[in-house]
Amino acid sequence: MNTYVKVRAPATLANFGPGFDVYGVALEAPFDTVEISLTDGPSTVTSNMDSLPTDVNENVASYAAQQVLDRYGAGVHFDMRVTKGIRPASGMGSSGASSVGGAFAAAALCDTIVAEDIVLAAAEGERISSGNPHADNVVPSYMGGFTSIVSLRPFNVINIHPEDLHIVAVLPDIEVSTRQARAILPETVALQDAVSNVAMGSYVIYCLMNGDYEGLSVALDDRLSVPYRKTLINGYDEARQAALDAGALAFSLGGSGPTVFAVTTNTHKKEIADAIANAFADKGIGSSTYLTMVGSGAQVVALE
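The structure corresponding to this sequence follows.
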């Protein structure tokens, strides 16, 4: 068993248009960093954010790590340090990245890298955050690229690594909790909306497998969650139109929001980011922009 490990796990955009609770993409940046050192004393967890829990059973990263260590670590104790680069409640998979970081770091500590175990442990970390062990953020954060969850038990995930797919993500200064975003969704949907999402979901996979990124202008249309969740984000429609006018290929909502994102080529990223930020500014809302691209997933940075 190793005695120290440092990993990083990236932000993600869950749903990626029509893939509600199924699709997700990993970003190159931003990311969370998790460090674990073995210790003789009781396990501890600290962070660069005072608002995060310091109880190892309440912090998503330490809880996910403990799930792995309970299976492979033979009762070892650890000191954990979580450095957050992803704002909580951002719609960029903040808790998912921390959960993946904790589970992946613990697995690397034990020299046991089993994708299914890491993902399931990270999903349990998500349960601490949202009350539901969902995996549409943790799977892409760990595996990278685009992911589509077929099932978790047995573990079956479609993983596509599209080349040179650029993303402009903009996080407005609005708070939307995952619980709030789920509560606004209807219990039932119209049949034609369900049919549309099946069609668009199929087209998303076709576009990514064949490098037809212009096709995403059609494929990212969602009728199950975005029409309801966008009402929680003042300026969403204006930001979408501004992005498309600036040359974006497609525009949608990151997970439960409030992050919005545009798919583009590298040529127009800055103009699109400015257009979206200005649309929110016109509503009196500040924002943070990320000029990034689809990334490769969680990585071990150091191991001793």
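Residues 191-210 form the longest helix (20 residues).
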